[in-house]
Design a protein that fits this description.
Layout lengths: L1 E6 L3 H4 L5 E3 L2 E3 L3 H9 L3 E5 L19 E5 L10 E5 L5 E3 L5 H4 L4 E5 L4 E6 L7 H22 L5 E6 L23 H12 L2 E3 L13 E2 L11 E2 L2 E6 L6 E6 L11 E5 L2
Parallel strand pairs: 1-4, 9-10
Antiparallel strand pairs: 1-16, 2-3, 4-6, 5-6, 7-8, 8-9, 10-14, 11-14, 12-13, 15-16
Helix pairs in contact: 4-5
C-alpha cells in the first residue's frame, strides 16, 4: 500500500483551475492529477487546500478512481483545509476532535480503514505572531490527547501531514539562524519530542539518517534549487505498525507546490 502526504499550497492552483506562477512563468497544468496517474497511491492526503468543494470544478474534485473527503475552514475562506483521497472506502470518517476553535479551521480528516486509522492533519503555523504560536502549541496538545485515546484501544495509527515544525537540527538547512523563528522554536520542537516519548515513530528517519533532505523551501530566492529547506512534513506511526513499514521517502523532484510529497510504503 502506498500512502502519500503533500501540502499542495492551493488545490485549485495545483489542479490548474487557477494559474500557477513560478518566477515569471504562468501555467494551468493539472500537476496533481498527473502526479496521481503516475504514482497511483492508494491514499493521498493533501494539506493547505485553501478550497471548499463548492469552489472546485466538478471534474477536478477528485482524481478518477478515488473517493474524496474534504474538510475546509469554516472561519476563513481560502485558509487551511485538508482532503484525503482514497481508493479504499473507509469504515468511518471524522473531521472533528470535539473542540470548536480547532474544528472550525478545517485541519483534520480522520479515516478508519480497519487495519489502521489515518490522520491527515495540517498543523497551524506560528509565523504570524505569538498568538498563533500559542494556538499551535495548544492544537498539538489537543490533537495528541485525542489520538492517544485511540492508541490506548490498540489501534494502529498513522499521523500524516504538515506539522509546521522541524524536529532536529538535521531537519533544516540553517538551524542556528532559525532558533528564534516559529517552526524551529524549542517549545514547538518539544511537542514532537512528546509524540516520540508517547511511542510514535518518525517513519522517515527509520530509513534515512542523513541530512539535506527537506520537504519545504521558501519561494524567495533560489532556496529550492540550492536545497535551503526544512523537513516539516511527516508520517508518524504507532510502534505496532512498524512491522508493516517497508519504506518512506521524499520526492523533492515533484513540483507544483513549495512542499514536496512524502511517500510511505506499507505491507498489510
Amino acid at each position: 500500500m502506498k500512502i502519500v502526504t503533500w501540502n499542495v499550497n492551493g488545490y485549485r492552483s495545483i489542479t490548474g483551475q487557477n494559474p500557477t506562477r513560478r518566477y515569471d512563468k504562468v501555467t494551468y497544468d493539472n500537476k496533481f492529477f498527473a502526479y496521481v496517474e503516475q504514482e497511483e497511491p492508494d491514499i493521498i492526503m493533501l494539506q493547505e487546500t485553501k478550497s471548499e468543494p463548492e469552489q472546485i470544478y466538478p471534474e477536478k474534485l477528485m482524481p478518477p478512481g478515488y473517493y474524496a473527503f474534504y474538510n475546509s475552514s469554516k472561519v476563513k475562506k481560502g485558509h487551511s483545509g485538508v482532503v484525503t483521497f482514497s481508493k479504499i472506502v473507509p469504515k468511518n470518517v471524522n473531521y472533528n476532535i470535539g473542540i470548536e476553535r480547532y474544528d472550525n479551521e478545517g485541519r483534520i480528516v480522520e479515516a478508519d480503514f480497519g487495519e489502521f486509522v489515518s490522520f491527515n492533519i495540517y498543523f497551524p503555523s506560528g509565523t504570524s505572531g505569538q498568538d498563533r504560536v500559542d494556538f499551535k502549541l495548544e492544537f498539538y496538545d489537543a490533537v495528541v490527547a485525542y489520538i492517544e485515546n485511540l492508541k490506548k484501544q490498540g489501534k494502529k495509527i498513522i499521523i500524516s501531514g504538515d506539522f509546521n515544525t522541524a524536529h532536529h537540527k538535521i531537519d533544516l538547512a540553517r538551524p542556528k539562524e532559525n532558533e528564534n523563528n516559529s517552526g524551529f522554536l524549542k517549545v514547538e520542537r518539544e511537542k514532537l519530542d512528546l509524540l516520540v516519548s508517547l511511542g510514535y515513530v518518525d517513519s522517515f528517519r527509520e530509513f534515512h539518517s542523513e541530512g539535506g533532505q527537506y520537504t519545504w523551501w521558501t519561494q524567495r530566492g533560489n532556496a529550492r534549487e540550492n536545497n535551503i529547506g526544512w523537513r516539516i512534513d511527516y508520517h508518524f506511526v504507532t510502534k505496532n505498525l512498524m512491522p508493516n513499514l517497508r519504506n518512506v521517502y521524499l520526492q523533492p523532484q515533484v513540483d507544483g507546490s513549495d512542499h514536496c510529497p512524502v511517500v510511505m510504503n506499507l505491507e498489510l
